[in-house]
Design goal:
288 residues, mainly alpha, 14 helices, globular
Length: 288
C-alpha cells in the first residue's frame, strides 16, 4: 500500500450504483401499478392537449398568438410572432410543432400544479426550506441528460418519460420564485390582514398570492423556457416533435433539415418567452 503513488487506493473505493439499481428494481417490482397509473393518466392528458391543438385550424392558432402578443406587448409584435408561427407551416413542421408544444404544455401544467404548493410550503416552513433548497440546487446543477436515465427506467420510451424528465428538469424555477414572491410580501400587509381577522388561508389567497403573482409568473416563464430547452434532449428517448427532427438531422448530417427544425425551435421559444414576459410585465406594471 503506497500512499505516495498517484493512484487512488483500491480499498477506499465504494460503488453506490449497485444500490441505486436495487432501489429502482424494488420500485418497479412493488410499485409497478403506480407507474402504470401515472403513465395512463399522463398520456391521457397529453393526448387531450395534442388533440385539442390539432382540432384548432392552423389560422386560428396564428390568430390566437397574434391576439395574445397584442395584448401582452403590441400589435406589431403580434404580427411578427404570428408570422414566425406561419413559417413553421411553410417549413412543413406544423405537425412537429404541435407535438412539441403538447409535451411542453403538459410539463408546464404539471410543474405548475406541483411547484406552486411546494413553493408556498417552503415560504411558510423554514425547516422545509432548508431541506428543499439544496435539492433544487442539485436539480438545476445535474446535467439534463441525467434525467433521461430514471425516466426510461421507470416509464420506458416515448412521450411520457419525456414529460417526466422535462418536469423534473424545469420545475425548480417556479418553486423558487413562488417561495421568493411570498417572502417578499411586506410584513405590514400580512399583519394588517391578520389584524382584520383574516385566517392564514385568507391571508395567503387574498394578500400574499396576489402580491406575489408577478414573481410567480416569472417563475412560470422560466419553467416554460427550460421545458422547451429539453425538447431536443427528450427526443433521445422517443419524444417526437421538433427535437426529433434536429436529432435525425444531426445523425444524417442534413444541414437543411437541421436548420429548419432548429430555427423553428428558436421561433417557438421567442413566441412563448415574449408573450409570457409581456404578461408578467402587465401584472407588475398594470396600466392606469
Amino acid at each position: 500500500m503506497n500512499f505516495l503513488s498517484g493512484e487512488f487506493p483500491e480499498f477506499l473505493r465504494f460503488g453506490v450504483g449497485v444500490y441505486v439499481d436495487r432501489f429502482v428494481n424494488w420500485l418497479l417490482r412493488d410499485f409497478s401499478h403506480v407507474f402504470d397509473a401515472l403513465v395512463e393518466g399522463g398520456l391521457a392528458f397529453l393526448l387531450t392537449v395534442e388533440s385539442f391543438l390539432r382540432w384548432l385550424p392552423w389560422w386560428m392558432i396564428c390568430l390566437l398568438v397574434f391576439l395574445a402578443a397584442w395584448k401582452a406587448r403590441n400589435w406589431l409584435s403580434g404580427l411578427l410572432y404570428a408570422f414566425f408561427l406561419f413559417l413553421l407551416g411553410i417549413f412543413g413542421l406544423w405537425d412537429m410543432m404541435i407535438q412539441t408544444l403538447s409535451i411542453v404544455l403538459t410539463s408546464v401544467v404539471i410543474c405548475f400544479i406541483l411547484g406552486i404548493p411546494v413553493g408556498i410550503f417552503m415560504a411558510y416552513n423554514e425547516k422545509a426550506n432548508n431541506v428543499i433548497r439544496p435539492i433544487l440546487d442539485a436539480m438545476q446543477t445535474i446535467p439534463s441528460f441525467v434525467y433521461l436515465i430514471p425516466a426510461v427506467m421507470l416509464f420506458g420510451m416515448g412521450k411520457i418519460p419525456a414529460v417526466f424528465a422535462t418536469t423534473v428538469y424545469a420545475v425548480a424555477p417556479v418553486i423558487r420564485l413562488t417561495d421568493l414572491g411570498i417572502r417578499r410580501v411586506s410584513r405590514e400587509m400580512v399583519e394588517a390582514a391578520h389584524s382584520f381577522g383574516s385566517s392564514t388561508w385568507q391571508t395567503l389567497t387574498k394578500v400574499q398570492l396576489p402580491q406575489a403573482l408577478p414573481t410567480i409568473m416569472t417563475g412560470v416563464n422560466q419553467t416554460t423556457m427550460m421545458a422547451l430547452a429539453m425538447v431536443v434532449i427528450s427526443s433521445m428517448i422517443g419524444a417526437e416533435g421538433l427535437g426529433m427532427e434536429v436529432l435525425i438531422a444531426n445523425q444524417r448530417l442534413d444541414i437543411a433539415k437541421g436548420f429548419e427544425a432548429g430555427i423553428s425551435i428558436v421561433f417557438l421559444a421567442i413566441i412563448i418567452d415574449r408573450i409570457s414576459q409581456g404578461a408578467v410585465n402587465r401584472y407588475r406594471f398594470p396600466e392606469n
